[in-house]
Amino acid sequence: MEAALDAGADMVGLMFFPKSPRHVSLSQACKLADMARGKAEIVAVTVNMDLDGLSRINELVAPDTFQFHGSESPEACAAVKVMQGTKIMKAVAVSEKADLEEAQYYAIVADRILFDAKPPQGSDLPGGNGVSFDWTLLKDLDLKKPYMLSGGLNVANVAEAIRLSGARAVDVSSAVERERGVKDNDLIRAFIAAAKNA
Ligand SMILES: O=C(O)c1ccccc1NCC(=O)[C@H](O)[C@H](O)COP(=O)(O)O
């Protein structure tokens, strides 16, 4: 968290999906969120979590944004936005142009769309798989809401990904880890510098 904030991250993510190697407990999340509050947008990443779980995270961690990375419907996004008073970022999985249509529905209710690659076969994680999709699919996208690009980004490819997709914001997980689930300060700094200089 310190490395990301020092390097100028605009948003930081806290993972609440139990199967993820990046999963944090509520008490860890509270400490990390306190470090970030007022310095970066705090994003709570969840996958098909029920309302009780979301309310508990909201009460204790007070994220700015919930990132929904499962099959949450546009109606569910809208309901959580109103009930919890947070922003909503909806992840949309992409492998071909047709997948972008889904984003238009979510853009009506979500504050931001996160375009991510579809998980590889056999993965039990809907995100954080370190795989990319064809970035040119996003070129000329007309979406009425801000969006971010993610999926397999790293220090070596992020500038090209931004150039080819036209994305103005990017998200990373796997490529700033020294081993699965363990973030690396130097890789975080290098990635943020490369993205900001792109
Ligand atoms: O990262 C995870 O473990 C994860 C698990 C379940 C749902 C979402 C998850 N990550 C969400 C993210 O926003 C990642 O940063 C995004 O998928 C990019 O990951 P990567 O391709 O590893 O850079």
List key phrases describing it.
single chain; 198 residues; alpha/beta; TIM Barrel; 6-stranded parallel β-sheet; two-stranded antiparallel sheet; 8 strands; globular; binds ligand LARABZUK
Provide an overview of this structure.
- It is a single chain.
- The strands form two sheets. The protein has a six-stranded parallel β-sheet. Strands 7-8 form a two-stranded antiparallel sheet.
- The protein has 198 residues and is an alpha/beta fold.
- Helix content is 35%, strand content 19%.
- The mean pLDDT is 97.
- The protein starts with a helix and ends with a helix.
- The longest helix has 13 residues.
- The structure holds ligand LARABZUK.
- The site of the ligand O=C(O)c1ccccc1NCC(=O)[C@H](O)[C@H](O)COP(=O)(O)O has 24 residues, from strand 1.
Strand order of the largest sheet: 1-2-3-4-5-6
Named CATH architecture: Alpha-Beta Barrel
Helix/strand structural class: alpha/beta
Beta-strand percent range? 15-25%
The CATH homologous superfamily is named: Aldolase class I
Count the beta strands.
8
Mean pLDDT across every amino acid position: 97
Radius of gyration (Å):
16 Å
Q: Which CATH class is shown?
A: Alpha Beta
Present as ligands are: ligand LARABZUK
Question: What is the share of helical residues?
Answer: 25-40%
Query: Spans of 5+ residues with little confidence (pLDDT < 50)?
Result: none
CATH T-level fold name: TIM Barrel
Using the alpha-carbon principal axes, give the shape.
globular
Distance, first to last CA? 23 Å
Overall tally of structural domains: 1
Biggest sheet character: 6 strands, parallel
| Count of alpha and pi helical runs | 7
Following the backbone from N to C, one meets helices and strands in this order, namely HEHEHEHEHEEHEEH
